[in-house]
Each structure stands twice: as C-alpha cells, then as structure tokens.
Amino acid sequence: MFHKVLIANRGEIAVxxxxxCKQLGIETVxxxxxxxxxxxxxxxxxxxxxxxxxxxxxxxxxxENIISAAINTGAEAIHPGxxxxxxxxxxxxxxxxxxxxxxxxxxxxxxxxGDKAMAKKLMKEAGVPxxxxxxxxxxxxxxxxxxxxxxxxxxxxxxxxxxxxxxxVVHHKKDFEKLFRAASNEAEAAFGNGKVYIEKFVENPKHIxxxxxxxKYQNVIHLGERDCTVQRRNQKVIEEAPSSLPIGMKxxxxxxxxxxxxxxxxxxxxxxxxxxxxxxxxxxxxNTRIQxxxxxxxxxxxxxxxxxxxxxxxxxxxxxxxxxxxxxxxxIEVRINAEDPKHDFRPSPGVINLLHVPQxxxxxxxxxxxxxxxxPPYYDxxxxxxxxxxxxxxxxxxxxxxxxEELIIEGVPLNQSFIxxxxxxxxxxxxxxxxxxxxxxxxxxxxxxx
Length: 450
Description:
Elements: E1 4-7, H1 11-23, E2 27-33, H2 40-44, E3 47-52, H3 63-73, E4 77-79, H4 89-97, E5 101-102, H5 107-114, H6 116-126, H7 140-150, E6 154-158, E7 167-170, H8 176-191, E8 196-200, E9 206-214, E10 220-232, E11 235-241, H9 247-263, E12 268-277, E13 280-287, H10 294-301, H11 305-313, E14 330-337, E15 339-340, E16 346-347, E17 350-351, E18 354-356, E19 363-367, E20 374-375, E21 382-390, H12 393-406, E22 408-410, H13 416-424, H14 426-430, H15 437-445
Parallel strand pairs: 1-2, 1-4, 2-3, 4-5
Antiparallel strand pairs: 6-7, 6-8, 9-10, 9-12, 10-11, 11-14, 12-13, 14-21, 15-16, 17-20, 18-22, 19-21
Helix pairs in contact: 4-5, 6-9, 12-13
C-alpha cells in the first residue's frame, strides 16, 4: 500500500479521500489555492501545500504545481477526486512519466473514453446498445446526412467534455445549421475542441448509471446501479440506489457495463452511464473517475469505493468477487448547494454562521463546511451531500425529509427547501420521474416559504 498520497482536489471530495487514506494508515498531502487556505481539507491532512491563486487555472488545474507538490512531499500517488484534472489524460500521463501513481485508469483509456465519439465507437465494438446516430465526429454536411437518416429530433453533442456544455437539441430542420455551429463554438470555448457528433434525441428518459470496479488482473465487477434521473439543466440533483427498473433490464445493463470495461481494459473505479426509454437502454458515456453520487452505492453495498480505488492503484487484486456483492435497502443522496433557487439558482458564497448536522442510523453528511467558514466565490456551488439509508425507498424518503428538516446551515441561501419540495412531490414519491421532471414542475417546486 502507499505510504503517502496527494489529493489533487478541494471541497467535500478532498475531505472524503483524506478520511479514507487515514483509515488505511496512509499519510496525506492536501493542495489548496490561496482562496482555500482555511478550507477543511487543509486542516485534516498531514501536510498542506499552496499551489496557486484562487482561479482554478492557476491552482487546481495547474499540473506543474501539483506534480511539484507531490515530488517535494514524497507522495507516491495522486488521487484526483472528481472534476478538475480527474479525467485529464495529459495529467495522468504526466504523473506516470514522473514516477507517480495516478489513482485512476491509464491515460490511454481516459483519452479514449473522454472522447465521446471514440467511446461510442468502442462501445459499438463491444456490443453495448447505443442511441442511433453518427459513428463519430461529423462535419456540418455529414450531420445533415445523419439528420435525414435518424430523423428529428436530434441531439448535437461535444466530443470532449460534458456538464451539458456543447449540446443543442434540434427539433426543426431549418434550425440545424445554426444550432450545429452554436454547439461547436460552445464546445471550442469550453474544452478547446469544437468537434461534435450527433445522435437521436431521446426526450425525457431515465438516467441510470452502473458502478464498476476493475483491477489490473482483468477482474471486473459491478456494484449495481444508481438512478440519477432528477436533474436540472443536465446537472444531477438527487441520486438513489437501487433503481426501480425491471430485474431483467438491470441484469442486461450490468452485463453491458462489465463487457464495456473489459473491452477497453479498464482499471480502477468507473461509471457507465445509460439512458432508458421505452423499455430500452442505451450507452451515453463513461466517467473514468469517482462520481459525486458514489455514497449511495456504498450505503447499499457496504463497499468503500475510495478505499478500493487506493487498493487497486497500489496493484492489489479486487477485494471482492461479484458473488460477494449484496444489496441492502435503499439509499438517497441530495446535493446541498449554496445557491438561491428563487433567483435563477444564483450562486451564493458567504460565511457560514451556524452549522448543525443531524446524526443517527443510516445518515451521512459529506461536506467541508464548519461554523465561520467562508465559502469562496470561485468554485462549484455544491457545499455538501446528505445521504440516507432506509429499508425501502419510502423509508429512505421519509428519513431524508426528517434529516433535511433538522439540518441547519445558516449564513447563505441554499437549495435545501427546494429539494424538500421535490421529496414531497407526489410524482417523486411514486417514482413517476424522468429527466424533465424538475423543468415541468419548477414553478410549483419554487413555492416554498423561506
């Protein structure tokens, strides 16, 4: 096992990784920007190194400074968490060339699966179901030909990156050229790569993902699925496990996910994402990193995914076989964001005046907050995740409502009441949801009292 690991991230995921390392007896190095000097992850790590100014490009995206921090502190490995450099093939390659273990898949696999068009090609080879569309990146003229083949509506998607950027839905043929150029230009600005591909637009599906663990000895297992359907503007809001899909579809989805990982020689933790519509599931992308929503899987399986990442990266065989994995009860995670839903979800940095975290059986709060902490304005607005475990979905919903009622975070506007409205909504309780749920019911969901 590693002696010392550097965590190339911030916020709750940095805290989460540090805690896992400590439980394994691994020393930790935190890196931070000048804006994060007082952040929790800098205080609980064994060492903390400043790597630059507040903007991400000068700190958490500064590969040279992060590698230098690892070398200077004697860290043998780097855990990238999620976001920032976690899916950057160049960074993974740089780590390898400097003799530092990147805790994740190889740079070659990151590059292949990070290129959405290439990923689709590989999945087609592996026999994984795909949404009808182009086989790879297309020019404007090629796109017009695809349009006539698959029919409207279609989705234009950036080959690189994600997070909903570089995406346009085309409902009318006359709008295709304008939206194609808009998607390409946005992708170029966001990811430095304006190439796009096209697929049939599946309107308001369910969004399901399968958690995978794979070691260097070609052992691959799945840890079940997560339902990440409740989204706003392509950003997940509530995640739960397991889903309500039929057992037969789940089994087919698990087999496809494992087959996909074996086909690309995947190693470490990863997630295969699918959309489900009309009793069919289709591959959309692979995330070659730990996911924000990994705790719901941990709650129903008892598997610590971050610890497994560390063990796999250290060259150990998987601790579990597929037969060892059992699924118990139901788990739900909600993302707590410092944002104001009644003002178009405007980010709301500021000082936390009071923090009270509920406790009890099956309740978990992953966060970096503490009383008097100043939330900086430079980064993602997510400040914590509440995760609960119940014996059934309804029990988990009730437990989450009670937990959110008791959770106190004073000082900045939050989306806490907005999430409570979702949890109270009759359609959510009955599981009658798709990716358009929030947009359809937004007006009603915003009618809470502050």
